[in-house]
């Protein structure tokens, strides 16, 4: 079975925008046979969730508070606006390729 | 999902909050949102603004938590003149916006299709340009309806 990745999707309210980008990323990756499961969160919750959870990387549309996240963090605004979407997907794929499963 | 009553062609407002109030009042009158929604949206903008630069377009997608929403709806406004809004990704930076999408989403996890439709609209710069050029609510309605929203 193919590996699945856990993604933390962060936006201001922890719901609407993060669900938008999470759904879009999920769809883009499904085309490449990569499965992800996503969790939506607010910026202030992110660090604690990462420390307690089993996340592989973070995507965000509102700035994350400073902290040692220990996993890759990727700006997903490009996915939201469509401007810079390709660069975003490249970064995600490169990140995934470096994660050992 | 889109309703003509929730479209605003050449909305006049002296600032972003006033625009949110004007749009929100109609949403409230139509039973889409709770009384707490408008204040919650304005409050949220202070910490987590929603201005987005889509190429040369400036738009904003104000919204808030589901507990302030009764029925999912989106109000769309073409502004009569640009308003200053802070950027989502760089909250210290002000951008000029011409279009607003005030979103009330009852169940963001269950209504992913609506969210993706909205996303495809805000990414479609040729559509945004057409919306900007409309002069009536009817023209706006025809254009937005054609996207399937």
TrEMBL record, chain A:
Domain Phosphotransferase system EIIB component type 2/3: 7-77
Entry keyword set: Transferase
Keyword Transit peptide: no
Gene3D superfamilies: 3.40.50.2300
GO MF terms, alphabetically ordered: protein-N(PI)-phosphohistidine-sugar phosphotransferase activity
GO biological process terms on file: phosphoenolpyruvate-dependent sugar phosphotransferase system
InterPro entries with a match to the protein in the record: PTS_EIIB-like_sf (IPR036095), PTS_EIIB_2/3 (IPR003501)
Name of protein: PTS fructose transporter subunit IIB
Native organism: Alkalibaculum sporogenes
Taxonomic lineage from the root: Bacteria, Bacillati, Bacillota, Clostridia, Eubacteriales
UniProtKB/TrEMBL annotation, chain B:
A Pfam family: PTS_EIIA_2
Entry keyword Transport: yes
Top-level lineage group: Bacteria
Gene3D superfamilies hit by this protein: Mannitol-specific EII, Chain A (3.40.930.10)
Domain PTS EIIA type-2: 1-147
Keywords: Sugar transport, Transport
PANTHER family xrefs: PHOSPHOTRANSFERASE SYSTEM MANNITOL_FRUCTOSE-SPECIFIC IIA DOMAIN CONTAINING PROTEIN, PTS SYSTEM FRUCTOSE-LIKE EIIA COMPONENT-RELATED
This protein's name: PTS sugar transporter subunit IIA
Biological source species: Alkalibaculum sporogenes
């Amino acid at each position: 079975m193919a590996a699945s990745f856990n993604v933390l999707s962060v936006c201001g309210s922890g719901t609407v925008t993060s669900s938008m980008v999470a759904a879009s990323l999920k769809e883009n990756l499904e085309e490449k046979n990569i499965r992800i499961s996503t969790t939506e969160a607010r910026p202030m919750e992110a660090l604690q969730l990462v420390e307690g959870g089993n996340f592989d990387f973070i995507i965000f549309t509102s700035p994350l508070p400073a902290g040692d996240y220990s996993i890759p963090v990727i700006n997903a605004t490009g996915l939201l606006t469509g401007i810079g979407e390709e660069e975003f997907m490249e970064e995600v794929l490169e990140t995934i390729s470096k994660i050992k499963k | 999902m889109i309703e003509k009553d929730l479209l605003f062609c050449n909305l006049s407002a002296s600032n972003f909050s006033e625009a949110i109030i004007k749009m929100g009042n109609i949403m409230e009158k139509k039973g889409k949102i709770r009384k707490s929604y408008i204040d919650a949206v304005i409050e949220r903008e202070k910490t987590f603004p929603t201005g987005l630069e889509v190429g040369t377009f400036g738009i904003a997608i104000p919204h808030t938590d589901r507990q302030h929403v009764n029925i999912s709806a989106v109000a769309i406004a073409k502004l009569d003149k640009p308003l200053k809004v802070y950027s989502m990704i760089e909250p210290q930076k002000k951008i000029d916006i011409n279009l607003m999408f005030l979103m009330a989403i009852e169940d963001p996890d269950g209504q992913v299709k609506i969210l993706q439709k909205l996303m495809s609209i805000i990414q479609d710069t040729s559509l945004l340009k057409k919306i900007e050029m409309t002069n009536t609510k009817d023209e706006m309605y025809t254009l937005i309806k054609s996207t399937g929203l």
